[in-house]
Amino acid sequence: MAVDPLAAAQAVNVLDAGSLLSAFGALGVAVVLFAETGLLVGFFLPGDSLLFTAGLLCAGGSHGPVHLSLPQVLAAAVVGALTGAQAGYWIGRRGGRALLARSRAKRLHEGAARAEELLERYGHAKAIVLARFVPVVRTVLNPLAGALGVPARVFTVWQVAGGLVWTVGLVLAGYALGSAVPNVDRYLLPIVALVVIVSLVPLALEVLRSRSRSRSRERRAADEGTS
After folding, report:
1. Tens digits of per-residue pLDDT, 106-155?
2. Of 63, 112, 113, 164, which one has the greatest count of Cβ atoms within 10 A?
């Protein structure tokens, strides 16, 4: 039975990895990763869970309504993530700070603060790679790097390195699980929920470290005030 593309687009849930893949397949992977890593409006998109779920649906043990090609998914993921990050960087070079200032999204501004902190603490190379694994931060670090004047060559080398590890690693992790566990797609929702939770761990750790540093500074200031 033929499926109307317009009807599929209207019915798709952009926050649900399974829905996106059912509607658009490997092409959806490329588009979503480009938007999440290159456009500030894409900060809410499910990059981690999308990559893992796509890999899961490439496995031979998946017998659900959607079955994807592993080479196509890997190619789409790499192209979307790398071109998205590069586009975000050039957007930042041409006015990323102004675009960010216009946004009223609290999560976006929090992500920008964490991205700037990563750049200051770890340096350009390590921060660009680490940002790939932190939701929201991977959206805002690319334009922020452009706005802060990170050299284009340095940014390109390390965003490619981080993008390859992130995309290929998550897709192959999903593929390996799908190949090892028969009919694993039956448990897709709890698996995706777990992936989302795990993807938030770096963000939670960073928040805890930030609060710990703030308390330490407050204690030092109090001790200096009483001495």
Report:
1. 766 777 777 777 788 778 888 898 888 888 888 888 988 888 888 999 99
2. 112
Q: Tell me which residue has tokens 């590069």.
A: 86
CA distances for 196 relative to 52, 167, 192, 213, angstroms: 10, 15, 6, 26
Q: Quick check: 49 pLDDT over 80?
A: yes
Residue pair 163/36 in contact by the 8 Å Cβ criterion: no
- Find the farthest-apart pair of alpha carbons in the chain and give their distance in angstroms, rounded: 80
Please enumerate in sequence order all residues whose Cβ is within 8 A of that of 153, keeping only pairs 6 or more positions apart, or say none.
Answer: none
Using CA atoms, how far apart are residues 42 and 105, in angstroms rounded to an integer?
12
Tell me which H or E stretch contains 12: none
Question: What does 46-114 look like in DSSP terms, one character per residue?
Answer: -HHHHHHHHHHTTSTT--SS----HHHHHHHHHHHHHHHHHHHHHHHHTTHHHHHHH---HHHHHHHHH
Is the per-residue pLDDT at 218 higher than 50? yes
3-state secondary structure 16-57: CHHHHHHHHHHHHHHHHHHHHHHCHHHCCCCHHHHHHHHHHC
